[in-house]
Each structure stands twice: as C-alpha cells, then as structure tokens.
Amino acid sequence: MVRRNLFLLGFAAMLLFTGGCSTVLQATKVPGADLSRLKTFYVQKLPADERGIEQLIAKELIKTGHVSSFGSEEKPSSLVDAIVTYQDKWMWDITMYMLQLSIQIRDGKDRTVLATGESLRPSLVRKSPEGMVEEVLGEIFKGAK
Amino acid sequence: MKSAASILLLVLIWAAVGCASSAKPEAMISVPVAPVHRSASDVVVTAIGGKETSAMLVSQISNADFALALRDSFDKAGLFKKALASGSAHYAVDAFIVQVNQPMFGASMTVSMEVSYTLSRTEPKEILWKKGIASTYTASFGEALVGATRLRMANEGAARKNIEQVIQEISSLKLD
C-alpha cells in the first residue's frame, strides 16, 4: 500500500515537473526595423498593473543607456522615439511570481509595432520581475547596438 | 489493479488539461458576409510573430497557420486575384502577430489578439497601408469541456475576427 502510494506520488510529480521547467524567451522584430536609432522611450502603464512593472521597464531602459519615462496616458507629454507596452501574468506557488512578461516596442508617432519580446518562466525556473524585464528587453535589443 | 486504474486516471487528467494543440488554419478562415472589392492583382501573404505550440504549454497560433488562414480567407472572399505564399505578385500583405493574450484558467476563455498589418505595392516598393487590428473572442464552457480545447477555440475565434476586419479594411482601399 505504502509502495503503491509512493509510486503514484512519484508519477504525479513527474507529470507535474515535465511541463514545469519549459521556459520561453523570444523576440521578433519587424523586417527592416532599426532599433538602434531609438533613444527616447515612454512606457505606458497597463491599467490592470498594480505592481509598477512600467517603472521597472523604464528603469531597465535607462540602465541600458536610453532616456525613458513612464505614465498612464496613452501618449507621452513630449514626442518620443518609441512607446513601450507590456502584459504580465502572475501565478501562485508558495509565493506569487511572474509567470510571463510580454513587451512591445511601438513607433513613437503612429504606434505601429517595431518589435515584440516575451519570457515565460514556470515556478521552478522563476526569476524576479526585474530579471524578467532585463531578459526580455535584452532579447529584443540583442544586436541592435 | 487499483494502481493501474489510478495511473490511467492521472494520465487522462494530464491529457485533458495539459496537452495543447495549435490553432487550426481551417478554423481561422473568415468568410465575410458583405461583398468585398476585388483587386485584379495577386498578393503574397506572410506572417511573423506567431508561436509554435508545445504540448506541455498552451495552444498558440503559428506563423504558417495564420498566413495560410489569411490566404484562404482572402481567396474565399475574392479580395485579390490569388493569394500566394511566395513568388511575385503586385501586392504584399505582411502580418505581424503582436500579441495573443490568453487566460490561464476559466470556464469561459477570452483571448485578445493584436496583429499589425502592412500592405505594400511590390514594384516599385511602396507601403500603401499600415494598421494594427485588435480582436477578441470568448469560447464558452459549452463549446468545449476540455480547457486546452476551449483555449484553442478562443485563439481560432480571435484570429477569425481579426482576419474578418482586415478583409473589410483592405476592401475599402479599392485596390486595382
């Protein structure tokens, strides 16, 4: 009986963990888009975001040598090279963690998309929100400079 | 005997909940009810920004499947003379799948999708029209009991509605 329960427990854990370590990190750029020309950014806060992810994105952009501001308005007060939008998904596993972060880089004038990036990290390979922001932006701008 | 039944049950639960399948091109085809303006020229249709589906993760929309659904929809609507996957044509439509926002759980699953389209003339190369189109679709519990299937259907519905809008937009340009 005990052996059977142990076996079942092990099997269930195996099923759970098979999908638990799959990570996704990818970015796509519009053919011909030159991200190296983008110097000034505005990060538009996602209305549902109460964790200040827009500030983390702006901070990371500044860290990587750009000029960045953030806010709730759809348009910034002054013209910028690019507008950044994002979506975050969170899950609970002992503590809350960021499961997925998607970021879009849009043209500052007409908001057409220039590039997108995404990271998905299940609980076992979780990263801090700062780490997720850093890796998604890193993937988007890889080779841009 | 009981162990075998328990294992079988676990496998069935895993299959029902965890195994995702990609959005099907035929389920993303949109056939407009209103007549559209027909261009006498061919068009090459491509898509980027989509994702392949991993059985361990959730249902996604791939570039190839979305481009195929776009081409079949254009052909069925009679929007161009012929929609091609590659080769030479007078026009080109490039679709960039910007985001597919999916729920993680839910009885009803709503997927929202944004696609950025660019329509160009190929000779000489000139961008004629550019627009981001957003669409949403809710797959209700009654449409499919299995969550993974319901999510795939929500993906397909959002794609179908997106294609429906792009057909109307391109039709209104009255291309030659």
Describe this structure in words.
The complex is a heterodimer of chains A (145) and B (176). The longest helix of chain A is centred in the N-terminal third of the chain and has 19 residues. Chain A is built from 3 helices and 6 strands, in the order αββαββββα. Chain A has a single domain, classed as Rossmann fold (3-Layer(aba) Sandwich), CATH 3.40.50. Chain A is an alpha/beta fold and 145 residues long. Chain A has a 6-stranded mixed beta sheet with strand order 1-6-5-4-2-3, covered by helices on one side. In chain A, helix 2 crosses helix 3. With 176 residues, chain B is an alpha/beta fold. Chain B has a single domain, classed as ABC-type transport auxiliary lipoprotein component (Rossmann fold, 3-Layer(aba) Sandwich). Chain B contains 4 helices and 5 strands, in the order ααβαββββα. Chain B has a 5-stranded mixed beta sheet. Chain B starts with a helix and ends in a 5-residue tail after the last helix. Chains A and B meet through helix 1, strand 1, strand 4, strand 5 and strand 6 of A and helix 1 and strand 3 of B.
